[in-house]
Design a protein that fits this description.
2 domains; 347 residues; globular; 14 helices; MetI-like fold; mainly alpha
């Protein structure tokens, strides 16, 4: 068993190397880098400010000089293998460099934006698991009933609607769009948040985060609920459940003492991917719609501006976090069901 966990931990740096190498190659193949991006802005500014008295040859010489200076500033004057080697060396020391467009290090930017994304990710994940698992168990126990069919229709509808479209609908109906003005449209706190009491701050924070969390969570609740339902239905039909009931065991005892532990293994498998999705990719459009300055918005703007240090840094950190969460998920398996033995077949 120890050999298995050692192998899993040793695979993390190998996998991270593959992630960094693949993204580095893809970035090099992408047309229009940060230098070209800044040059287009500079040329546009020169056209706007031009009065007609300048020389075209002088302007071209100035542009080429600026291009060379930008290449040296961003390090693009070095060969690819040198840049990749420096990238790996710095990443081993968790040195992700500075943003091309902001006078801050990548770690400082991530630290600055992390609280917003953590708030969305943690609250959304908690809401999803607290609602989806009990509801999925109830649907499995009441399979075929009116409750099961009715909730299936509602969950299917919630699963089919994209998170960004749901966010827009919530804004229209509940954030002063055309109907009700129950919730704020932007930000995580009010302007007078510092003047409120501690209880007022908590209520104000929850008031602001309600619509973004609901936008992200509805689809996740539907997906996890169906997964829980099907997992429990699969376990309820197995021989050990029928044997326990034949021996006179109470149905609730069989469900929670035997079925729950086995059925939850499949549910726990999706936790790492769900948490990473909530923290980064899943919240990007939600952060844009509700003007929340988090990691999703940071990554989106970095891709738009070709801010490579920010792009690489966020991908590296979330890749590392995802790999560690996968190892943690396997470890939780062994705690939930001691029969699972990843090291090989027990004698």
């Amino acid at each position: 068993m120890k050999k298995y966990w050692l192998k899993r931990l040793l695979l993390i740096p190998v996998t991270l190397f593959g992630i960094v190498a693949l993204n580095f190659v893809l970035i090099q193949m992408t047309p229009g880098g940060p230098v070209e991006h800044m040059m287009m802005k500079m040329q546009g500014e020169m056209v706007v400010s031009e009065t007609g008295g300048g020389s075209d040859s002088k302007q071209r010489a100035y542009i080429e000089q600026m291009r060379e200076e930008l290449n040296q500033q961003f390090g693009f004057d070095k060969p690819l293998w040198v840049r990749f080697g420096e990238l790996l060396k710095n990443y081993m020391m968790f040195d992700f460099g500075k943003s091309f467009y902001q006078d801050k290090t990548v770690l400082a930017l991530i630290k600055e934006k992390m609280p917003v994304s953590l708030s969305l990710g943690i609250f959304s994940t908690l809401l999803i698991y607290l609602i989806a698992i009990p509801l999925g168990v109830r649907k499995a126990v009441k399979v075929g009933s009116f409750f099961d069919k009715g909730t299936t229709f509602l969950l299917t509808l919630g699963y089919a609607v994209p998170a960004f479209l749901l966010a827009i609908l919530l804004v229209i109906f509940f954030a002063g769009g055309h109907y009700l003005n129950w919730f704020p449209l932007r930000g995580l706190v009010s302007e007078n948040w510092s003047e409120l009491s501690w209880w007022g701050r908590i209520c104000d924070y929850l008031w602001h985060i309600t619509l973004p969390v609901l936008s992200i969570s509805i689809g996740g609740i539907a997906g996890l609920c169906f997964l829980t339902r099907n997992s429990f239905l699969d376990e309820l039909g197995k021989a050990y459940v029928l044997t326990a009931k034949a021996k006179g065991c109470n149905s609730a005892r069989v469900l929670w003492r035997h079925v729950f532990r086995n059925a939850m293994l499949l549910v726990l498998a999706g936790f790492p991917a769900m948490l990473i999705g909530m923290l980064f990719t899943g919240s990007m459009l939600i952060e844009v719609i509700f003007s929340l300055d988090g990691l999703g918005l940071l990554g989106y703007e970095a891709l738009q501006n070709r801010d490579y240090p920010v792009v690489f840094g966020t991908l590296y950190l979330f890749g590392l976090l995802g790999l560690l969460l996968n190892v943690l998920s396997d470890f939780v398996y062994t705690l939930v069901d001691p029969r699972i033995h990843f090291g090989g077949r027990r004698e």
